[in-house]
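Q&A log
Question type: sequence-to-structure
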Amino acid sequence: MATCGHDFDASPFFRPIQIRGLRLNNRFVMPGMQRGWCEDGYPPPRLAEYYAERARGGVQLILSESTAVDHPSATRTWKYGRLTGKTVDGWARCAEAVHVAGGHFFMQLFHEGALRAEAGDDPWSAHPTLSPSGLMSAAAPSGRAATAVDLEEIRDSFVRSARLAKQSGADGLEIHACHGYLLDQFLWGEINIRDDGYGGPKIENRVRFPADIVSAIRAEVGPAFVLSFRFSQWKLTNYEARVVHNPAELETMLRILREAGADMFHASVRRFWIPEWPNSDLGLAGWTKRLGGLPVVAVHEVVPLGNEVPERATGVTERNAAVHAPRALRAHLLRRKVFVDLLPVRDPDRDRPPLRQLPVVLHEPGRLTHRRCLSPFGQ
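Response status: OK
Response body:
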């Protein structure tokens, strides 16, 4: 495995970036990760301290874990967060802790859709599991298809929770539409077989409900509150799933979301270095930056030198560059995710060996120099 020396230019990760009224002093971000610490949707004080610790380490943008919107069908998992009138003060404590530590804080809002657990006797079990077509995958029914009234109520629940996110002092929010959950179920043509203008073979119909939610949230929170939209091709139920099958479909989806009010995109992939489509080295995030016209989150990992490097796709040339992690982050972080405009940081709390002064390996797409890798994506 070839590596280059410590003269690798990591300076783009430390450049400030402006997104609407939000200025980040570097491009390190911790994305949403479930800790499983909430109790009946309420975040405990240790979660606020967990976020603040990462901000003190130098991470400029902290995203909350996926937090269920204020709708009875959103989740039945008791240890997941909820954003309601009963929990907003706990999330305000998280936002304040991050601000005091020198960082910025986004809430991430989601609804599980067909992935919600079905059986049980908790208070939420009396409410049906709702999704576009009553499917969690093509061969796996779950719950029932949402009616037009259901969709209005779910949209309104996103708006209520967005209003509370702003009230909590958060600097923005991320709309979770990935990995097979509700809004991603609308985007995924294999299971969204609605015929009411919200589903079917055309991406412009399948993105309509997620875009309606973005638009409604934008109308509620105003022009200055930053909105991120996170999407993926892969699903928990199907790693090979595809929301968009070519650049033209992707461009259509991104345009509709941008016009609805999105300020940034977060393209979640499982293998950053694998080109999304033939005849191009660009992954999904690269295509998103090329076609979407907004700052973009790209996902990947940074691991300690000497660790086994994951196998690349056949025909993709490796180029690995050794860089030093930011000093204040080294004590905490083992695995990371990489923005293209920002650099998200992944930190599994249950797996934190001391890195001290260890350098890390930054894996990049094959056949691209570092500068060429960044320039299509960053500002």
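Response note: The first helix runs from residue 45 to 56.
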